[in-house]
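[Automated response] Your request has been received and processed.

Submitted sequence:
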Amino acid sequence: MIKIVSFDIWKTLLDTSKFYQLISEKLSSLTGKPLENVYKELMNTYYEAIEARLKGLFKKPIYDSAKFFAEKMGISIDDLFKATVQAILDERIKNISFPDSEKALIELKRRNLKIAFLGNVLFWPGMATRIILEQNNLLKYADITLFGDEIGVQKPDKEVFEILADQANCKINEILHVGDSLINDFAGALIAGARATLLKRGMESEIIVLNNKAYIVNSLVKVPQIVDLINNYK
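Generated structure:
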C-alpha cells in the first residue's frame, strides 16, 4: 500500500533547461560572453557535473560543484552565484514547471496521499529550489521536502529514502518514487526498497509495467494510475 509519493524535482517537476536559459542570460550580461555560447557551455557542464556528482567528487556540494562549473566555463564562482540569484528573481522563473506537474499533484492529493519532493543539489542550495517551487505554485503540495545539502546525502544513496520513510512514518516499501533519472531515481529507489516510476516524456506508450515495484510513464498525470495499480495489486 502506497502512503507517500516522492518526486524528483529538476527535469521532473521543473524544467532545468528553462532555468539554465535564465542563468545563461544573466551570465552573458555579467561576463560579456555571447548568450548562445554561455548556454551551450552551461548545459554541457551540467551533464559532466551529474557524472562527477555520481562519482562522489563534490564533498561540499554547493561550493565544489560551483567551482567545477566555473573552471569548466572560464568564469568566476561569484559571477555564477550572482547569475543564479538574478535568474531566481526574474519574473519568468514563475513559468518553468512542466504542464503535467501540478495536475499530477492535485490528483494525488485527492487520493489523500502524502507528497514529498527529493532534490539533489549542484551550485544552488535546496532552499533556493524551495523558492522556485513556491514561485511555480508547487511547494504547497509537498508534505516533506528533502535536499542533499541539508540532509548530507544525495540520491541514489539509499539513506535518502530511509530519511524520507522516517519523516513520513512509513515503511520504505510504502514509498513510490518518481523521477527522470535511471540511476538517481529509478535504480536508487528500487535498491533502497521503495517502489519506482521512471518518467520518460515523449515515450509512445503511456504506461509500462515492469513488475509490481517498477513502472515507466510518459507523463506525470499517469502517476495516480500507478498508485492505483500498486494498491489494487493482488
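Summary generated for your ticket: The chain has ten helices and seven strands. Residues 16-93 form a domain with the DNA polymerase; domain 1 fold (CATH 1.10.150.400).
If you did not submit this request, please reply to this message.
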